[in-house]
Each structure stands twice: as structure tokens, then as C-alpha cells.
Specification:
There is one protein chain. The protein is of the alpha+beta class and 258 residues long. The chain has one domain: Fumarylacetoacetase-like, C-terminal domain (Fumarylacetoacetate hydrolase, domain 2, Alpha-Beta Complex), CATH 3.90.850. Helix content is 27%, strand content 29%. The protein is built from seven helices and 13 strands. Helix 1 crosses helix 3 and helix 5 crosses helix 7. It binds 2-oxoadipic acid (OOG) and magnesium ion. The site of 2-oxoadipic acid has 16 residues, from strand 1, helix 4 and strand 6.
């Protein structure tokens, strides 16, 4: 086994056993960020072999709130898979996860392929069929969500599930930087943010993703959904909790933990 195959297998075992592991970079200090994206590609390939589809991509650590919470200073990206889709307010079975958290995000539904280099926020807006609100379920395969940037990339940026809101709006009709979000747990307001928390404007984050993918000969594909990054700290999905995010203009979306 190569080191990347070895790391992919460790992550897959953690998912299968619902049991967290230590950071990969401790046992494999030579692992580079590029290697980590290769590990991520392997983990995803194995999921595709198991019958899932890639339905989109996600940015991570695009807001200061998330960077401070996770102690990683730079954005990253991962892939979204069909097995992770949940309907809003449907029960999410905690036993299927290690220690899941949820975070509110602005979601882009892409109409036309975006291929870097040179993609701008304006190109993203023009290529987007609609935006909606979402909650991302994240579940680090690393104990206590403790990881370096390299670890979290290998772990497909903690991706574990997505929930999308009911309201689809053309991004040309909104200033996404000004979209407010309220995050409530069991009806109690826990935090607030605006779209600008994601790199000033969520479309800038999506443009960055298109340009990064371009460096790897890939593109944001027509029909993909792109989660542009958590706007606030993620909150734990404890048994019995109901987490709801309500956005200006985009409606609300919820997760119910059972
Ligand atoms: C890493 C994933 C971060 C986001 O939106 O910032 C992320 C983590 O926090 O475990 O998805
Ligand atoms: Mg996220």
C-alpha cells in the first residue's frame, strides 16, 4: 500500500466503525496538501464504487468564525456525495455518525460549467441557476475535531451530509453578502451572521473553488450544488436537538437529531 492508500483506508475504517482516529499527519509527517487531495480523491472513488454519485462540492473554512473554531487559517474544499442528502427537518440518526455538527451555508445550484483559471465572482453569479440556504452536517473522522489543514483535506473536509432549503432564488436578484442568518437550537437563538462572513461574498469563495479545481484539470460542473462554507461556528448535533437556520430571502432549513 502507498501512504495515500494507507491514509484513505484509515479514514474509511473510521467511517465504517463510527470511531475517531488520530491525525494522519502525526504518523505520516511527510504528507503534503497535494497528497491530502489525492487521499480525498481515493476516499471519494471508493464511495463511487459503492454506488454513490458526486453531486457537488463544498468549501470549508471560508469564514473567520470557522477558522478560529477549527484553528486552521486557510480555506479548503471537498466533494459532496449523493448518500449524504437529507430532506429538511427529517430525522438524522446520530448512530450513523461519530460526533456530528451542523453549520449554516449559502448554497449555489450551478447552471453552467465553471472552469478556472480566471473565474470571477461575476462569472459565478452568471453561471448560477439559483441560490438557496443549507445546513451542512460535518463529522470529522479525527478525535475531538482536532486536525491540521492537511488532515482535514484528506478527510474530505469532514463532509457527512447536506440539507437544502425550500426557496430557490436567482443570485442576480440578491446581494448575497447582505443575507442574514439566524442559527437556533431548540428554538433558542445561538448565533447570527451575514453572507459576507464567507470571504466578503460567497460568490468569491465559489470562484476560488473553480480556480483551484482548474489547477487540477477539474471544473465545477453544470448541475452541481456548491456549499460555500459555514457562516458561523458549527453546533453539535446532540440527541433530540432541533437545529434551524433562517436566512433573509432564502427561508429556513432544519435538522432534527434522533
Ligand atoms: C472542517 C469543515 C469546514 C466549513 O464550512 O467551514 C466546513 C470542519 O470544521 O470540520 O465545512
Ligand atoms: Mg461546511
Amino acid at each position: 500500500m502507498t501512504i495515500t492508500e494507507d491514509c484513505a483506508a484509515e479514514l474509511e475504517n473510521a467511517v465504517r466503525d463510527r470511531s475517531a482516529i488520530g491525525p494522519l499527519t502525526v504518523d505520516h509527517p511527510a504528507l503534503t496538501l497535494d497528497d491530502a487531495y489525492d487521499v480525498q480523491a481515493l476516499v471519494v472513488q471508493h464511495r463511487l464504487a459503492g454506488g454513490e454519485r458526486v453531486i457537488g462540492a463544498k468549501l470549508g473554512l471560508t469564514s473567520r468564525a470557522k477558522q478560529v473554531q477549527m484553528n486552521v487559517d486557510e480555506p479548503v474544499y471537498g466533494q459532496l456525495l449523493s448518500g449524504g442528502i437529507h430532506a429538511s427537518d427529517d430525522p438524522v440518526v446520530l448512530a450513523n455518525y461519530i460526533h456530528p455538527r451542523v453549520e449554516p451555508e449559502i448554497v449555489f445550484v450551478i447552471g453552467d460549467e465553471l472552469r478556472g483559471p480566471g473565474v470571477t465572482a461575476g462569472d459565478v453569479i452568471a453561471a448560477t441557476r439559483a441560490v438557496c440556504c443549507g445546513l451542512e452536517i460535518i463529522d470529522s473522522r479525527f478525535a475531538d475535531f482536532k486536525f491540521t489543514m492537511t488532515d482535514v483535506v484528506a478527510d474530505n473536509t469532514s463532509a457527512a451530509g447536506i440539507v437544502m432549503g425550500p426557496t430557490y432564488v436567482s443570485p442576480a436578484d440578491l446581494d448575497l453578502s447582505l443575507i442574514g442568518v439566524l442559527l437556533e437550537v431548540d428554538g433558542q437563538l445561538v448565533t447570527t451572521a451575514a453572507g459576507a462572513a464567507t470571504m466578503g461574498h460567497p460568490a468569491d469563495a465559489v470562484a476560488m473553488l473553480a480556480n483551484w479545481l482548474g489547477e487540477r484539470g477539474q471544473a465545477i460542473e453544470a448541475g452541481w450544488v456548491v456549499f460555500s462554507g459555514g457562516l458561523t461556528n458549527a453546533v453539535p448535533l446532540a440527541p433530540g436537538t432541533h437545529v434551524r437556520a433562517t436566512f433573509g430571502h432564502l427561508g429556513s432549513v432544519g435538522v432534527r437529531a434522533t
